[in-house]
Amino acid sequence: MARYSIWSLARNALSHHQHWPRQWRSPEPKRHYDVIIVGGGGHGLATAYYLAKEHDITNVAVLEKGWLGGGNTGRNTTIVRSNYLWDESAALYELSLKLWEGLSKDLNYNVMLSQRGVLNLAHSLGDVRAGRRRAEANRLNGIDSVWLEPAGVKKIVSIINTSSTLRYPILGSTWQPRGGVARHDAVAWGYARAADARGVDIIQNCEVTGLCRDTAGRITGVETTRGPIAAGKVGIVAAGHTSVLAAMADIRLPIQSHPLQALVSEPIKRVLDCVVMSGAIHVYVSQSDKGELVIGAGIDGYNSYAQRGSFHVLEHQTAALVELFPIFARLRMMRTWGGIVDTCPDASPILSRTPVPGLYINGGWGTGGFKATPGSGFVFAHTIARDEPHPVNAPFSLDRFVTGALIDEHGAAAVAH
Amino acid sequence: MSDRTQDYRLPAGGLIDRTRRIRFRFNHEWMDGHPGDTLASALLANGIHLVGRSMKYHRPRGILAAGAEDPGALIQRRVTGEPARTDPNWRATQTALVDGLEAESVNVWPSVERDLGAVMGALSPVMGAGFYYKIMQGSRFMWQRVYEPLIRKAAGFGTCPDLPDPDRYEQRHVHCDVLVVGGGPAGLAAARAAARSGARVILADEDERFGGSLLARPRTVEGHAGPEWVASVKAMLKANPEVRLLPRTTVFGYYDGNYLMALERVTDHVSLAEAPAGAPRQRLWHIRAKRVVLATGAHERPLVFGDNDRPGIMLAGAAQEYLHRWAVLPGRDVVVFTTNDRAYEAALDLHTAGATIHAIVDARAEPGPALPAAARAAGIRVVTGYVVAGTTGKTHITGASINKLQADGRAQPHCLETIPCDLLLVSGGLSPVVHLFSQSGGKLRYDTDRLAFVPDRAVQAQASVGACAGTFDLAGCLAEGAAAGAEAARLAGFDPGRGAGEAPACDSEPALGSDSPLWQVRYAKGTEFDWGKPFVDLQNDTTAHDIQQAAREGFESVEHVKRYTLTGFGTDQGKTANINGLGVLAEALGRPMGEAGTTTFRPPYTPVTFAAMAGRDRGDHLDPARLTAIHDRHVAMGAEFEDVGQWKRPWYYPRAGESLHEAVARECQAVREGVGILDASTLGKIDIQGPDAAEFLNRVYTNAWKKLAVGRVRYGLMCREDGMVFDDGTTARIAEDRFLMTTTTGGAAAVMDHLEDYLQTEWPDLRVRLTSVTEQWSTVGIAGPKAGILMARLASGQDLSPESFPFMSWRPAIVAGLHARVFRISFTGELQYEVNVPWHQGGALWDAILRVGVDLGVTPYGTETMHVLRAEKGFIIVGQETDGCQTPLDLGMDWIVSKQKPDFIGKRSLSRSDTARPDRRQLVGLMPKDKRRVVPEGSQIVEPGASRGPKPVPMLGFVTSAYWSPALESGFALALVAGGRARLGVTVSVALPSGEVPAVICDPVMFDKEGARRDGLPAA
């Protein structure tokens, strides 16, 4: 891999950038791979990268039905944080955050991690209890999370409306300074380039249409729109279609798929320097390095595989936004889009072996998968390579839905009133 | 004061009101325009092209277009004396000229003419596509602390207002039979044909005036000059009561089910003084149409060549529009660079208006038959087989260099000559505006004859007509429009009548030769970089070189290229850039144009104001505030309120000078020693009726319900399928086939959904009907040892004494003269009555209680006191002691889980291995060793000393509730602790940031364990 640096940039500038190498190859699929990853999003590419880097498994293909990074990796609001309530989640997301902190260097690709801090606002006494509880759990888990009173919130974001006349006034907030945002596309591209350099074949426009098993039920490969490809192991990392792919191996998952929309404003001069999230009045916002306000909220109510949502959902989140930030009222929505999120009953992901030998599933991340990209790939690669979960993802197995050992993050996000 | 005198305004013509002048400011200069002007036309009339600077290199940007597609002419809009009414990033081409308008260039310092940001141009050689991914990756510190802040400071165009918006916005929902989007010739013909049938028609156009291309080019329709024909059709439509005309209304989104969103700019085009009283600034329309006719027109494409971005370079059609519509000559010394015949007409029109056309440079070897001949006949030099290879000038174009095309289609290395000019018109052909069609789910097809993406197959009840469907001639537009309008009306169930779909006649247009594709000027090998930057996206500074580099680096998907080079990511969303970008990419990859499709056309078509999306859902209307019938009494008594779901509940009633703590202590004492009253109207109430009602309850609650006698009340716990507690409350049997269920305040809607879900999908055989009656009953709880005395006074002549009216039963009664249902239940542990009266009589009941209880010291208490009292008794609050992860057993409530019932929701899950673990977190009481301590709710519980150890610290559980108890004279808490019930008496630590607080695990019931007070205290 030709390394990127200020010097390589200067050198290439002299030749009008005519000699940059491809960031990844565009190979024809081989007939057999040791491991096939279905899905060329951030999680899939990260899995392939760590398979090669950490486990020396390089005969790997990532199969992507469209263009890599084109699913939720390229559609999310890029928030990165690790302030989860439960120990199991905290361990997973904190592992991720630690990997994020070294990711640009590791990949030799600037993924623009920007640790500008994340506020999770509380708007009711119930929110306050839940927020304090989470901040305290985070503190004891070694995560940099603190509880702030409204004055502390105002100190961090002076433009926020902390007035008591707000319909649901801000009663406090958790604050994770190490949280922030990253450049989503760069994450996919950086992992793709680094995985490719270690020998991984990234094959775009190659849709998996079936999973092949031998008579013993073990996975033997995949059927694709570009023909059958054999594999010793197959990992499904196809957010938005996890249950569709699992069904190809007769596995029924407790997943509901919903559209989730986001939007950006026109680019304006710097006005907001951290991430502000409000679960109670349903909006979250940050300002990108390009100057756009990046805004998201909750999922659409109905199940769907169409990557588009309903306008009223955007109206609600915009109303919440302009109440929290009255000076944003005259700004304008420039672009909206939707993705499909796979949600689990306990709002936690599945990172697991399956009843089908050789088949592994990484999915069900709901609305929050982006932040987990590095950690998810890291532990999923371990799970595939060793055929057993890494200690961090052991609790995120499929059998938790049988045993009842759920990791229910709903309660942490929104306690019933 | 400026001495600009609209030097470029022609003495006559145009659709402007010359009788009136409008004074406006642009940067430091004040100047004049006229009503009917846009800021762009007024600036051009005053000889100003330089409006802004580009994103990355701060290159000078002028006015390229005349409408929504303009990429670079962005301004900060201000209004004299109205600091809160400022808007960033407005397009000069769509900004109506109004009195008091003050427009400023954005993203420039100190001025648009001398912008220091332009030093970025010197760095441009290294700032190729995606350069920032390749550097600054080595040190997190340097990136986050040094580079990124610099980037953030440089980014963005306009500035956010720093005051709240004083304007008002509204929304309307409307249905129609036929929605016509676009009021050009095709749209007008469609609307007219549809309206004749009597169908309800809406015609919307983003422009202030209907007419579209008829305002921009001299044409004759049905014997009238274009604008006159437009006026007559408009008048006819306006006279039709079934037609709604929406000028200045951009249909920006096309959703499923023919549901379209539109933004009407109601008063943005007039000064504040002229705005009608009470009118909103903008109005968002939700339009549900039976049929949609899209007549959204086409955008002209610029051409991609070296330094093609200088101010003074303009689309040919835009110049024609400035000339005809606004009587503005955008330049006097003109060069035209085209790949089609249409630009010749623009040249001829400018020539006629007095400009000197120095040359028409046509990349085609063989232009069409008519217009080029006419140009030559007018004495204009026509150069075919040539291109403009580069330009000169700084903040305005001064010359265009023309090169001959070689046999290989590349420009010769040396230019023939550089022609001095102050205006270079460019035309690369037309791109249909397929945005809405594409949003509707329709698929596009690349038409190799028309060199355009055109609608292929509609998937909604919709038709595309005119230029947006690739029909660029006027006769075709009128014919398609009229036919589609009549057909839409017919499909919507109306009879358009004979002849309604006939094409309006128009004078014939000059015959056109065929366009030739030229996605970029290609240069002789080795000279590609000699001619300046060939811009594709003028706002984001994406060049053809960037796209070629992206392709070399393996970004082959159009979406990848868009993202890597930022093509089309600007506020114009690439209206002039995207198609050229696709062409450049196709050539770089050696693929046929159109093969790879387009990037997704995402809503909105043009930006939409946030406040308009919020509409009236602002302030208190963000979410409806639900108030009880007694609310005004609480306000009058000075209550502080707590938001519980949408409800406003009295939290506590402070007397003068009292703190929360003092008020709650007083209220607690009143209930424990006298009598207190609580407005409990907010609790969810569901009327459950039907022969199978008891069976239904038996399945949704964990305990048994079938044998509950009429007149009796029972507490119930509801689980989800996973066995976790979902809600709780008491349910009373009103009659054999009728129950009244109460739910938690915040959970009411979710419970109703849950019950309906099961009734409708799992047990449709059950004969049960559910009705929410939360707001049919006002409820006042009367609690305390003196509650009986108070009740006796309120219900005189009826024996409601605890002896004859047992706990957990209800009966009808007359209370304070009101028909009431009285329930003997208790959430405080005291003798308690809950009196339900019809909703609107709640206030009367409340007043009567306070009146007759004056001597008893009857005291209203709020939710905080309620929480303390119930916590002393170890009663849970769902959502506080639970977070969706607790089984009834975890809460120590196995007494309420039936072992006999064959099934209830959640039963199976309770036997799952994890759910049955003995070391699950269990509800316990917690007494701090230091009785004065009230630990913060949410605090974590650890083994003593553990929090000083290494992280992660093992956590045993957490504090769910914590209060000061006046009765216990101690702080106390409820907590969920791992294996807690087996650890009674054990000391644990509540871990606070300031240190650990030791506390002893105890039974959660801390007050009146025997329940002796439930029936009132023995008469003293």
UniProtKB/TrEMBL annotation, chain A:
Name the UniProt key words of this record, in alphabetical order.
Answer: Cytoplasm, FAD, Flavoprotein, FMN, Nucleotide-binding, Oxidoreductase
What cofactors does this protein use? FMN; FAD
Which reaction(s) does the protein catalyse, per the Swiss-Prot or TrEMBL entry?
Answer: sarcosine + (6S)-5,6,7,8-tetrahydrofolate + O2 = (6R)-5,10-methylene-5,6,7,8-tetrahydrofolate + glycine + H2O2; sarcosine + O2 + H2O = formaldehyde + glycine + H2O2
Q: Which residues form the Rhodanese domain?
A: 35-79
- Domain of life of the source: Bacteria
Name a single GO biological process.
Answer: tetrahydrofolate metabolic process
Pfam families assigned to the protein according to its UniProt record, in alphabetical order:
DAO
Q: Which EC main class describes this enzyme?
A: oxidoreductase
Cellular component GO terms, alphabetically?
cytoplasm
Sorted alphabetically, which InterPro entries does this protein's record hold?
FAD-dep_OxRdtase, FAD/NAD-bd_sf, Rhodanese-like_dom, SoxB
PROSITE patterns assigned to the protein according to its UniProt record, in alphabetical order: RHODANESE_3
Q: What does the record give under GO molecular function?
A: nucleotide binding; sarcosine oxidase activity
Question: Where does this one sit in the cell?
Answer: Cytoplasm
The record's EC number reads: 1.5.3.24
- Read off the NCBIfam families from this record: soxB
By sequence similarity, the record places it as follows:
Belongs to the SoxB family.
Q: What is this protein called?
A: Sarcosine oxidase subunit beta
Organism expressing this protein natively: Roseospira navarrensis
From TrEMBL, chain B:
Domain of life of the native organism? Bacteria
The record, for SUPFAM superfamilies, names:
Aminomethyltransferase beta-barrel domain, FAD/NAD(P)-binding domain, Folate-binding domain
- Residues of the GCVT N-terminal domain: 630-901
Residue ranges of the Aminomethyltransferase C-terminal domain? 921-1008
What are the protein's UniProt keywords? Oxidoreductase
Q: Which ranges carry the SoxA A3 domain?
A: 532-616
Q: Which InterPro entries match?
A: 2Fe-2S-bd_N, BFD-like_2Fe2S-bd_dom_sf, FAD/NAD-bd_sf, FAD/NAD-binding_dom, GcvT/YgfZ/DmdA, GcvT/YgfZ_C, GcvT_C, GCVT_N
- Which ranges carry the FAD/NAD(P)-binding domain? 177-444
Q: Which GO terms describe its biological process?
A: tetrahydrofolate metabolic process
Q: Name one GO molecular function term.
A: sarcosine oxidase activity
- Mind telling me which PANTHER family this protein's record contains? AMINOMETHYLTRANSFERASE, AMINOMETHYLTRANSFERASE, MITOCHONDRIAL
Task: Spell out the family assignment given in the record's similarity comment.
Answer: Belongs to the GcvT family.
Give the matching NCBIfam families: soxA (TIGR01372)
Q: What is this protein's record name?
A: Sarcosine oxidase subunit alpha family protein
What are the leading ranks of the lineage? Bacteria, Pseudomonadati, Pseudomonadota, Alphaproteobacteria, Rhodospirillales
